[in-house]
Amino acid sequence: MLFSIPPLFWALAAAAGISAWSLLSRHIMRNEKDYLAVAVINENLSALVLIGALFVLGPAWLSSSQLAAPLDFSSIPALAWGALAIAIVLYTASGLLSYQVFQAVEASERAVVSQAQIVWVVALGALILGEPVGPAALLAAGLIVAGALLCTYRPGKHRWDSPGVRLTLVVALIYGTATLADKLALGYFPPLLYSLPMYLFPGIAALALLGNSIRKRAPIVLKKYGARFLLFSALSILPYFAYLIALRELPASSISPLVSTNVVLTALGGMLLLGEHEGWRQKIVGAMLAFAGAWMMGG
To answer: Is 153 within 8 Å of 159 (Cβ atoms)?
Structure first.
């Protein structure tokens, strides 16, 4: 039943879900000082949701059409295990830092600036994997950079002076590097099984950082947001499932531009739902430029 729905729908659903997750993250975090307490609840709850979903969906979702033979851990090369380990470290760092980003940066700004990860992935792919970079990719990179600059510029000042905007760029670059690790590892691991530690380890790291203070801090945050954590976790997991369903039917080069429409959706949502009105014309134009660049990068 799920797979009778057109894959285009799932790709656009992923974009909408990412946008909704960004807007809810900003809504919760902009007035919340204890980002670690939020992280420990949301990351661990997301991991539990993912584990439950894997059991419900069954063994078929633990297999991969990318694998030529049944999964055999002993046959996985050291390079793939190394890429997996690097990805875990990078996703753990970027996941926890993202909560600080949402404390300091508007959702629309974050969405546009985060597109820098696409440029970074292309650059790393050219340097490390020898992937070709043509004039179209360079033009696309220019559009993304122009969109980020326009989105963060204000007359008489520049938002790049803000630590939050700079942290957004750092997180985007970490995500981009993690994407390269994904490329190296995903040919050897089933995607959903591969994703599980990417949700588990940020939660474990948040637990370690909180230490004994979790007994005091976590209940305060849990009482404050309650059922919104369920929505928070669902919006963290469901767009990923929608992306995977679309990926079963469409090439990645087709899906990436469709999913990147979340940039425009988030910019509009930030203005309409979160009151992010300052420089809204620039944000919309910047989002459109970043979206155009992402579309070109996707081929």
So the answer is: yes
Residues 182, 124: contact at Cβ < 8 Å?
Answer: no
Query: How far apart are the C-alpha atoms of 84 and 181, rounded to whole Å?
Result: 7
Q: Give the Cα separation of 178 and 79 in Å (integer).
A: 14
45, 231 contact by CB (below 8 A): no
> Residue ranges per domain, the chain?
2-64+73-297
Give the CA radius of gyration of the chain: 19
Q: What is the mean pLDDT of residues 256-268?
A: 76
Instruction: Give pLDDT, residue 129.
Output: 66
d(CA 166, CA 172): 10
Give dist(CA 71, CA 188) in Å, integer. 8
With a CB cutoff of 8 Å and minimum separation 6, the contacts of 209 are 36, 96
Task: Tell me phi and psi for residue 158, to 5 degrees.
Answer: -135, 130
77 Cβ contact list (under 8 Å, min separation 6): 188
Residue 105 carries which DSSP code?
S
**Amino acid of residue 51:** I
Q: How far apart are CA 192 and CA 248, in angstroms?
A: 13
- Single pTM value for the model: 0.80
Residue 149 has pLDDT above 80, yes or no: no
Cβ neighbours for 195, distance < 8 A, ≥ 6 positions apart: 50, 240
